[in-house]
């Protein structure tokens, strides 16, 4: 079926490219995670499960836990902050919608290293906020606004919230407005109509946005690196460190695979949960 | 009551915009601050920008970013467009499979892709540098090109291509005279998007760059690790301005698109 | 008459679904043949197989006696007018019309000559530099036709070409299309679901249902002597009287209404009028037959002299010659 029309072959270069530079490297880290690390950081091609056994350690358990807590909190906060904005945009006239969407999209494209750095200017001890508060005489000593878990959360939500706004906006746009009108017609208050009609019908947008935000925050190491202190290291930082400083690639690979599997499991559970709630509503 | 609710919502949305843009605006503002040390405003200056142009490392990073950006986005656009054109003709099952494979890089955490590529390059003993950066950038921007082109092709439908074939155009003739001219704005938008992605990428580049292939974001990262300085502000501002311009132009092309097709 | 297209037991299946069961059809040179049927009856698939956009699962199509087999659309000597016209939005009227000649690398002088001729023919000379967006629906339709006929195709395929236009325009274009076909002498294969359109234009109509051709004949024959129950009810209005394994179809205009006490010899059934709808030139009368569920429709023309009212008791009758016997 691939050779009936010559145009069908046009996908071959792209597929070969992705095979060599995406699929193959992914398989390689799976293999690497079962190999040994040599004394000088080189890879020794001998099978071992040791890398995985090493992960079962309270130290790494804590970091995995922190990473998932931050990722889940980031996702939840992004929904809370993003949904009203998407709703507002979807209610605007067409021409204004386009402008607002572009305004939300632009920060999404700006390098998030630069965007996290912008917060450093604002929050550091000689930063904008502390300078203003001190010159107003409200505080005498600079507040420790940066390098804590709060600043990491702020940075995460700030960089990732556009991921949430766009999918929710799309699902609000595709929603059948007549159902909402029907709900009003049947005497639902705006809040009830929102809760029982709009929210369930835009679930797909929330799910898509959540996955995008969650996946991005799971592997994030720039924000904790720039805005967090040594104590707020997340799994991304540990993995990066294994690869670039500690030079223990097999262990780093094992860590990243466990991270991936755990996040996939969470996403799967999340899917199941939303499906289950759908069914409940169906029978109610 | 109803207007009250709407006002709250609109007030909130404007606040969100402020939240999104204020840090960026402050960063840009401080790139013009005369004072080096702290947040007190001590006068307007261009000197940090001028010093950037005198800095050989900055210029080298800029040149690297441009070379890598242009080469990788040309490659990504050509490969992505060709693949999108072909996949359209596949049966549903194949199309779903191939699209799934192609969209996978978008949903995999960037750090995974970065380290996986690092492992690959070291296993085949490829020296890290501009070459490996270009390969990595093509890999992550090609899927975005495909998303844009796929949307464009779906909008176009198959009737116009059938009409061309009916009028005697061979598959290649159809491609040249009908399909390509009609999706050209999408191709331009895809090119600009992948250029933006390449220019902005930090995480993946962080893993696959060599000592002589520092790009702008990598250079900025090095400076950021050393602390806040007006030079970083100026350099970041330049990167932001480039990104914003590129995104707006790309968006205009993408929209121009749908206007010319729907009649 | 000479055969131009012959479909030899062609069949089309998509996955497991049979869209067109094995079917044969012969189309004669210069005729206006319409494929008529409800949506989903396979008429468009049939047309697309003739054009070469779909390949038959089995069987073959012959053009002038030569099998078309795997011949791609761009090598078939026929052209198509698409439902939504499919004009190239990035080309003006002239470029759209010349597209086919350019693809066949016809020399420039010949291109110019044929372009002028066709532009005049479809009265688009003044609009030649406009883009499709700047044209009305009817004008776009002319461009679509001009773009096809400039290639002098052996056969012109038309896929509901009037479907997107409003009623008035459709009426006037029906006649134009019919005249065009007569003057050019090209064979037309026309797909529509609109029976009025089919009746007004065709030399022959093939009535299709569930992928099968139920009957292929002239419009008059199709109307007067339908061969299947489907044709009898799909084309125009009809009353069907069922008796065991045969059905009798009688058109409403052939049903005569009598007072119950008048000409009892001609009565066939009795009933009560349930509705009478005035439509200007005629009145549609609905009669529920005594002791049955069946409602019979009768057309009563102005000047018949009798004015039936709802609830009147009537007797109905028809002459033997107006009956069509059909297998049920």
From TrEMBL, chain A:
Cited PANTHER family: INNER MEMBRANE ABC TRANSPORTER PERMEASE PROTEIN YDCU-RELATED (PTHR42929:SF1), INNER MEMBRANE ABC TRANSPORTER PERMEASE PROTEIN YDCU-RELATED-RELATED (PTHR42929)
List the CDD domains hit by this protein, alphabetically.
TM_PBP2 (cd06261)
- From the Swiss-Prot or TrEMBL record, give the protein name: Spermidine/putrescine transport system permease protein
Supply one GO BP term: transmembrane transport
* Topology class, membrane: Multi-pass membrane protein
Name where it mostly resides.
membrane
Spell out the family assignment given in the record's similarity comment.
Belongs to the binding-protein-dependent transport system permease family. CysTW subfamily.
ABC transmembrane type-1 domain ranges (all copies): 64-270
The record's subcellular locations are: Cell membrane
Write down the species.
Answer: Brevibacillus centrosporus
Assigned keywords, A-Z: Cell membrane, Membrane, Transmembrane, Transmembrane helix, Transport
Question: What Pfam family is a match for this entry?
Answer: BPD_transp_1
GO cellular component annotations, sorted alphabetically? plasma membrane
Automatic annotation (TrEMBL), chain B:
UniProt keyword annotation of Disulfide bond present = no
GO CC field: plasma membrane
Give the UniProt record's GO annotations in the biological process aspect. Answer: transmembrane transport
Which Pfam family, any one, appears in the UniProt record? BPD_transp_1
Localization, UniProt: Cell membrane
State the SUPFAM superfamilies in the record.
MetI-like (SSF161098)
Q: How does it sit in the membrane?
A: Multi-pass membrane protein
Q: Which family does it belong to?
A: Belongs to the binding-protein-dependent transport system permease family. CysTW subfamily.
UniProt name for this protein: Spermidine/putrescine transport system permease protein
Source organism of the structure: Brevibacillus centrosporus
